[in-house]
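For reproducibility, we list the full input for the NAP complex.
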Amino acid sequence: MGYRVAVVGATGAVGQEMLKTLEERAFPADDVIALASERSAGQSVSFGENNELKVQDLAKFDFKGIDIVMSSPGAAVSAQHSPRAAQAGAVVIDNTSQFRMDPDVPLVVPEVNPDALAGYSRRNIVANPNCSTIQMVLALKPLHDLAEIKRVVVATYQSVSGGGKEAMDELFNQTRGIYVNDPMTKEVFTKQIAFNVIPHIDSFMEDGATKEEWKMMVETKKILDPAIKVSATCVRVPVFIGHAEAVNLEFETPISAADARAALRDQPGISVIDHRADEGYVTPAECAGEDLVYVSRIREDPTVDYGLSLWVVSDNLRKGAALNAVQIAELLTEEYL
Ligand SMILES: NC(=O)c1ccc[n+]([C@@H]2O[C@H](COP(=O)([O-])OP(=O)(O)OC[C@H]3O[C@@H](n4cnc5c(N)ncnc54)[C@H](OP(=O)(O)O)[C@@H]3O)[C@@H](O)[C@H]2O)c1
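The corresponding predicted structure, in tokenized form, follows.
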């Protein structure tokens, strides 16, 4: 028997990737329903090579009979509609920041904390972590198992697709505009993003950190270990797809670069590409469309006791969003539904 699956935000950057991933992985769905705002109702979205789905208006949709909802319409919309879908009997896998820190909602990366998924039944909602968190905790997991991580200092280089389809359009239009001498327009980003970098993602908090930086800290604690300290600086860069992270780690016990490399090689979901040579590392341009999290530049940091530095890259729309959500759905169907 197949499942009835609804994709909320189906016209967006994550929703489109979600449909692609469900189809590519042959998720056992009898029926897939595309939902978005009333602005897109009636439009078609592709599902696989040969299928088109008519988009329906989320506000008018009745979730009765739906088994699984994959939701990415933004936090405010999820706040309203994810509980409504859960009450109608569906299990919601929510991609927004709305429920991630709710103690009754599991925050899951299947290769890292699959057992947490058992808590889904408390609210019938599972949260997908932030894209930057997912790729980082996947790389941290085998290292934490090996030598216990005390502190993480991370600087991110996040692509514009993390801000959705309008953010991608803004990078394209500004870049084109600079070449043809058009006046600069800025609607999504606070500063020019073309040929620039912006150390500001999401809103500022009272302590001076941004909310994106806060998410990396609290989500890492919730998924991996509350004792891990995280200091993050999150930066938007003029790249369309793929987030990169320069990660510096301090451990409780000694760990060599060779041991770290071996442990990372054994971790499902990770690919180690680490040669000290030209092209011996991965960049965002190479990871777009790929499922894995790539780890490169693994080296010891002699400036602290038991320190390591690494470079972590992944497609933020795949493992950072759609793939992780579909993997959660697969785990749900295999173990719980
Ligand atoms: N992009 C990433 O890498 C990433 C990663 C993890 C999580 N997320 C989260 O996922 C969410 C969506 O991100 P995105 O990048 O896909 O954004 P996006 O490209 O801007 O797409 C937003 C989607 O939400 C729909 N939507 C907006 N308002 C709605 C409403 N009132 N009712 C129903 N649908 C509505 C849009 O439909 P219309 O086309 O009809 O407006 C569109 O399908 C955000 O919360 C984001 O934080 C994104």
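The longest strand covers residues 149-158. The CA atoms of residues 202 and 211 lie 5 Å apart. Both points were considered when choosing residues for closer inspection.
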